[in-house]
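pasting input
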Amino acid sequence: MSATPPMLEVDCVSAGYGAVQALQEVSLQVQPGEIVTLIGANGAGKSTLLMTICGDPKPRGGRIRLAGEDITGQPTHAIMRRGVAQSPEGRRIFPRMTVQENLLMGAEALTREDPGPQMEQAFALFPRLKERLAQRGGTLSGGEQQMLAIGRALMSKPKLLLLDEPSLGLAPLVVKQIFDAIRALNAQTGLTVLLVEQNANLALRLAHRGYVLVNGRITMEGPGRALLARPEIRDAYLGGGHG
Amino acid sequence: MAYALQQLINGISLGMIYGLIAVGYTMVYGIIGMINFAHGDIFMISAFIALIAVILLSLGGLMDGPAAILLVLVISMAITALYGWTLERVAYRPLRGSFRLAPLISAIGMSIVLQNYVQVSQGARVKPLEPLVPGGIEVMRDGAFVVQFSYIQMLIIAVTLVVLAVFTILVTRTPLGRAMRACEQDRRMAALLGIDTDRTISLTFVIGASLAAVAGTMYLLRYGVIDFYIGFLAGVKAFTAAVLGGIGSLPGAVLGGLLIGLIETFWSAYFSVQYKDVAAFSILAITLIFLPTGLLGRQEVEKV
């Protein structure tokens, strides 16, 4: 084990909703400054894992540690205030709030700090947000909503950013813009990212390392490019090489 | 003409009281999707607290002038807020995540508990209070008929407008208001941004109860008689107002309250006092049939 603890350590975590056990003893680690991706088919449990890290649902077994500190079983808002932010599945923009208010909601965890500089960072990353500042979240296009979701997540100056399917339903050009932004953030600020994606090709090219989740279990892990080269990945997730 | 003007004044001041209660229904519905059927009884409790405060202040010889009335209002708001907080904590929060009807049943139970609690502790008889704010100004005279705008009606309208203005600023301009709106639009996402949603819900009940306390205190001062049962009728009418305005809409609640107050008053004046409740509740039925989203409500299309 390295001197500094991993930014995120998921240790043998099981979780699910009601009678459904979505995660079976999942273990993964994300080191500080890393982009790690979790790929898998629809329903494999990817989103459940991100939500479980955030304490909703609470894990049924195993431990979750953030920068060495045990956060297992803590309420969601407390975990998020420890420096975790998520851009969730479906973006979940507040539809009847303006872009500005949505961003300010993201700064909620900053408590008394001035959200101004974070706002500027979001605009630098996605200039479109600045143009849409007074517009209601519900009236934005899908791509703009995704930018807003990521911008909102960054408002709290997170140590760990959880991204759930940022490419879903978006035009390739917008997807490229968003992935470029993630890459730039990671390179410039050393932001640690855990990225969940169905688009394995894109995700594995971006990430330093990847994990493959199948039916709630981790079946493979390795450096992004190495995973990309494996035939079973190509067959299962790259659907004949396009994408 | 003069008669109608008088009804207008009466209707508006009554409607303000309904509007204040209706805001509490609509806020709670917006944030946790339940009808808090005990809200009318919170209103009733607040009238009793105001009455007790008036009596205690009178015993101390302090019940004098506008400052004393303001003090009664503040005492009633503070203690009623505590009731609202406790209600949520005891009867609704443990049922969060349970089936949808559970908190509703609990609310009906709490309504019965509160009524009986007041009946047992304060007695079942009607409590009278002599007018603290007598008199008024003569607006116009038409033969023998004098249009009277009483001071208490002015007080009700003024206090309600001030309280609603403060409330509007709170909801639209402050971080707490933003957090409340976030919880209303997507509670899970609000938690993902570090909002303590349980605390926000508690505060919603506290604010709703304080607004009901303004209504309860004003009701006591205006009508001067209360009993343990007043919460039921006032509560159902305010609920009607909230539905008419569009449940979940804050301006809708106030608008609905005013309309119900006016409809009830004009119906009593021109048709039949005995059937005034029928008029109000017919509005509920008609709204639910022909305009289920209310006047200012929105269609639920966003949540898929």
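fyi The beta strands of chain B are 127-128, 136-142, 145-150, 225-226.
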